[in-house]
Design a protein that fits this description.
Among the domains are: 61 residues, no CATH class; 101 residues, Tetrahydropterin Synthase, Chain A (2-Layer Sandwich); 32 residues. 53% of the residues lie in helices and 19% in strands. It contains eleven helices and ten strands. Strands 3-2-5 form a three-stranded antiparallel sheet. The longest helix has 43 residues. It is rod-shaped, with a radius of gyration of 60 Å. InterPro entries: Band-7_stomatin-like, Band_7, Band_7/SPFH_dom_sf, Stomatin_HflK_fam. Keywords: Hydrolase, Protease.
């Protein structure tokens, strides 16, 4: 009898312990308990100690902390047909425990799948340049689209960040060449601007030196001092600017005198006509009958004898020319 009573008490104690352990639940601060009582949803409970019926109630604990999901690398094609590999990270948390249980079977898997598909869609609508330079805009667009999809599930997507964009090797080399060309262009532009400013300063310095000759002398002496400081065999003989100006003035004066001498020469001085020859405006030039005689006189090269008769040329009448020359003597 005593043994039977003792066994009954032990069994009753075990049942009470089981009921207590199943009825009393402790909910931590970052959790909420979604209770189904006979299949009907109850309000979320917690944190702290809650009492539930062991057989009647079913409890689902929901973690309200921020969850992190690392989107694996995705092989994507951008808007300008460049193949890239992109991975990202998503931060989300549960804001409504009841909807996260009633609206979707597993809110974590659903959020991860939406993040992957949205990443593919947005990268496909973006060019490579925008993907590399406008990262903040892409992250904001991803966060808005994913949050709109997961909001009916009681999920709040807070941050979506594109972590890495891996380009093909050929594209990396092309971008490196482009960056190098851009740096060369900037260097040339800066050098050209410096040359322009130096030329403007030199022009202003030349104007000052021209207005003040003493400044030119000081500059010459300074240049000589700089040359003398170096260990070289260069010898500099400075010439005063006044001497150079004197040579310039003398050359200008000589050029002016030579031009004046050329202008004073008589304009009508021409060669005198041959003796006995026709001149322009004379009777021989005006008389047609005299033209053949004049032409004959100019083209005939015969000799004249003492009695006034013309001697035949030597080529036509070969003869003793020497006798005639002797008689003439």
């Amino acid at each position: 009898m005593i043994n039977t009573t003792l066994i009954g008490l032990v069994i009753a104690a075990l049942v009470v312990i089981y009921i207590v352990t199943r009825a009393v639940r402790v909910i931590t601060e970052y959790e909420r308990a979604v209770v189904f009582r006979l299949g009907r949803i109850q309000e979320a409970k917690g944190p702290g100690i809650i009492i539930v019926a062991p057989i009647v109630d079913k409890v689902n604990k929901i973690d309200l902390r921020t969850h992190t999901y690392d989107i694996p690398p995705q092989d994507l094609i951008t808007k300008d047909n460049v193949t890239v590999q992109v991975n990202a990270v998503t931060y989300y948390n549960v804001v409504d425990p009841v909807r996260s249980v009633l609206s979707i079977e597993n809110y974590q898997v659903g959020t991860q799948q939406v993040a992957q598909t949205t990443l593919r869609s947005i990268i496909g609508q973006t060019t490579l340049d925008d993907l590399l330079t406008k990262r903040e805009e892409i992250n904001s667009k991803l966060q808005q689209i994913i949050d709109e999809v997961t909001n009916p599930w009681g999920i709040k997507v807070t941050i979506v960040e594109v972590k890495d964009v891996m380009l093909p090797e050929s594209m990396r080399r092309a971008m490196a060449r482009q960056a190098e060309s851009e740096r060369d262009r900037r260097a040339k532009v800066i050098h050209a601007i410096g040359e322009q400013e130096a030329a403007e300063n030199l022009a202003r310095a030349a104007e000052v030196m021209e207005a003040h000759p003493a400044a030119m002398h000081l500059r010459t002496l300074s240049s000589m001092l700089e040359l003398g400081a170096e260990q070289n065999s260069t010898v500099v003989f400075p010439l005063p600017m006044e001497l150079l100006r004197l040579f310039d003035a003398a050359g200008t004066a000589l050029g002016g005198q030579s031009g004046t001498a050329k202008g004073d020469a008589p304009a009508g001085s021409t060669a005198a006509p041959a003796a006995g020859g026709p001149t322009s405006g004379g009777p021989a030039a005006d008389d047609p009958a005299a033209r053949p005689a004049a032409q004959g006189a100019t083209t005939h090269h015969g000799a004249w004898s003492d009695d006034g008769h013309e001697a035949p040329p030597q080529g036509d009448h070969p003869g003793p020319v020497g006798h005639e020359s002797g008689d003439r003597e």
